[in-house]
């Protein structure tokens, strides 16, 4: 299973999300983000365009060790990277990052890729 985790700002566009995903070079099986972000219209539009399921994760599930240590993400979410934490959380305890957090050119979205065998 390959999961694309996302973090993004409120004003993000579907194109920004797609740009961040493209920077990872991956073709995910599913998308993931925080529960409160999963209904964002741009995120839903990307999921629809890619025909992929969405995993909306509660804050407790995002308590994952991440390769990236963003001060903004730590302050807002308690994790070094929402994108990395979301991707890792969906895959499960044997998850590993295939691509650490990538930032869209407009700096509105981040995407990270995790893989592994889900439990």
TrEMBL record:
SUPFAM superfamilies: CobE/GbiG C-terminal domain-like. Transmembrane segments: none annotated. One of its GO terms (biological process) is cobalamin biosynthetic process. Coiled coil: none annotated. Residues 2-114 form the CobE/GbiG C-terminal domain. This is Cobalamin biosynthesis domain protein. It comes from Salipiger bermudensis (strain DSM 26914 / JCM 13377 / KCTC 12554 / HTCC2601) (Pelagibaca bermudensis).
């Amino acid at each position: 299973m390959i999961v694309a985790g996302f973090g993004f700002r409120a004003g993000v566009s579907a194109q920004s999300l797609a740009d961040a995903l493209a920077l990872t070079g991956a073709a995910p099986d599913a998308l993931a983000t925080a529960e409160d972000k999963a209904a964002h219209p741009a995120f839903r539009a990307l999921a629809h365009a890619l025909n992929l399921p969405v995993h909306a994760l509660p804050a407790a599930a995002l308590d994952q060790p991440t390769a990236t240590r963003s001060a903004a993400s730590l302050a807002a979410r308690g994790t070094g990277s929402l994108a990395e934490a979301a991707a890792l959380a969906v895959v499960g305890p044997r998850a590993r990052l295939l691509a650490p957090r990538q930032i869209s050119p407009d700096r509105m979205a981040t995407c990270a890729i995790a893989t592994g065998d889900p439990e």
